[in-house]
């Protein structure tokens, strides 16, 4: 006999078990929370991935709505927003290296259109990648000038 509190919680067959698993509401809630943590960890470890959530963490066995709700409770953001922020943080790190152009970073982040990359970057950081780079270079240059005019 399966315990189901609604249709979406009838995911209670694990790969390792051939029989249904009986879970209380609390156990089900914990299971869903662990699924949300798994998604967060997968995004954090590979922020530039363009794979879907089910491709990132294939053995979730959690309904989409339940996962979205648990993820938002965990991170205070939707999965989509969290992924965007992590992707843009990774893009900012690539831009900081000054090895890559904005266009190259956009491509590495999975954008075919640099305009869409610029829009998303600005949505997260309130600056375009070019503005961010200019500010970053100014700060680096100012720090260099201040350090080079020491006691000398």
Automatic annotation (TrEMBL):
The UniProt entry, under PROSITE patterns, shows: HTH_ARAC_FAMILY_1, HTH_ARAC_FAMILY_2
Q: What is this protein called?
A: Helix-turn-helix transcriptional regulator
What would you give as a GO molecular function for this chain, any one?
sequence-specific DNA binding
Q: Name one Pfam family in it.
A: HTH_18
Instruction: Describe the location of the HTH araC/xylS-type domain by residue ranges.
Output: 37-135
Q: What are the leading ranks of the lineage?
A: Bacteria, Pseudomonadati, Bacteroidota, Chitinophagia, Chitinophagales
- Write down the Gene3D superfamilies for this protein, in alphabetical order: Homeodomain-like
Q: Which UniProt keywords apply?
A: DNA-binding, Transcription, Transcription regulation
What SMART domains does the record point to? HTH_ARAC
Q: Does the keyword Oxidoreductase apply?
A: no
